[in-house]
Each structure stands twice: as structure tokens, then as C-alpha cells.
Input
Amino acid sequence: TPGDLDPRAKRIKDPNPRVTINVFSLSNNLLFTFKSIRKTVKYLKADTRTINRFLNSDQPFRGEYYLRSAP
Output
């Protein structure tokens, strides 16, 4: 059916819209700031679930970055 081919139907919604994410180096220097999880995902070429898993955790993302939500 035509609805099955609609690309918008397969779009993943951002579960945390408008969450500002700061990306820090391992030495705790601010490297990047993104205005949404989707923009972070696109830049880091990662999955939304992966970003959410590492967000505010003590584990470095890809061994290089700490991901923190901005207050």
C-alpha cells in the first residue's frame, strides 16, 4: 500500500526533544554543544539508543567523549 512506502512513517522520533547535549573530552574540556539528541546522533554517527545509554554516564562514548545533558 502507498502508506507502507511513506518515508515519514519510518522516521524515528527523538524521545528527548530539545535536550542540549555537551560533549567533553576525557580531560573534561568542552568540545561540542548540540541542541538535540538528533543533531548529536548525526554528528557522531551513532544511534539514538547509544547516545541515551552514554548520556550522563561515567563511561566514555567510544573511549573518547563524555556526553552530558546541559542543565
